[in-house]
């Protein structure tokens, strides 16, 4: 049995993507990038993601942290969509979400500092 080559995977992916009408910019790497971003958004540690992706340098993995932080910043609270007479204090809800975001940012920067890497801007 022969191992599957990188090119074989790319070719099979391209054929499948074309068959369902996906944009030509979508690639196997897009899936890899999405996988890593979703893991980070679910709270998987950056070091675990680094190992799963086979990155030698943590800096290769930290770009997913930037994407995840930007995604989190753009999330609109579902409470803002509610149309009820007595609304929850959205400022408290939003401030709580911001605290969680800043905490995640701090954890990532702490990990980066341990690895003598530059911090991510907030």
What do these coordinates show?
The chain has 122 residues and is an all-alpha fold. The chain has one domain (6-114). 63% of the residues lie in helices and 0% in strands. The protein has five helices and no strands. The chain has helices spanning 6-19, 28-41, 46-53, 58-73, 90-114. The longest helix is centred in the C-terminal third of the chain and has 25 residues, at 90-114. It is flat and about 60 Å long.
Describe the structure concisely:
With 122 residues, the protein is mostly helical. It has helices at 6-19, 28-41, 46-53, 58-73, 90-114.
Q: Give a short account of the largest sheet.
A: none
In whole angstroms, the N-to-C terminal distance is 49 Å
Question: Helicity, in percent?
Answer: 55-70%
- The tally of structural domains comes to 1
Relative strand content = under 5%
What is the tally of beta strands?
0
Q: Roughly what is the average pLDDT, rounded to an integer?
A: 76
> Low-confidence parts, pLDDT < 50 over ≥5 residues?
none
The radius of gyration is 19 Å
Classification by helices and strands:
mainly alpha
Write the layout of secondary structure elements.
Elements: H1 6-19, H2 28-41, H3 46-53, H4 58-73, H5 90-114
Sum up the structure in keywords:
mainly alpha, 5 helices, flat, 122 residues
């Amino acid at each position: 049995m022969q191992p599957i080559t990188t090119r074989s995977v790319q070719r099979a992916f391209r054929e499948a993507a074309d068959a369902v009408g996906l944009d030509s910019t979508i690639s196997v790497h897009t899936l890899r990038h999405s996988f890593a971003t979703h893991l980070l958004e679910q709270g998987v540690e950056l070091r675990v993601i680094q190992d799963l992706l086979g990155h030698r340098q943590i800096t290769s993995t930290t770009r997913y942290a930037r994407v995840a932080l930007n995604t989190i910043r753009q999330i609109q609270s579902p409470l803002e969509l509610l149309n009820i007479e007595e609304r929850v204090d959205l400022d408290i809800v939003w401030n709580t979400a911001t605290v969680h975001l800043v905490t995640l940012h701090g954890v990532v920067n702490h990990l980066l500092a341990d690895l003598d890497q530059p911090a991510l801007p907030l």
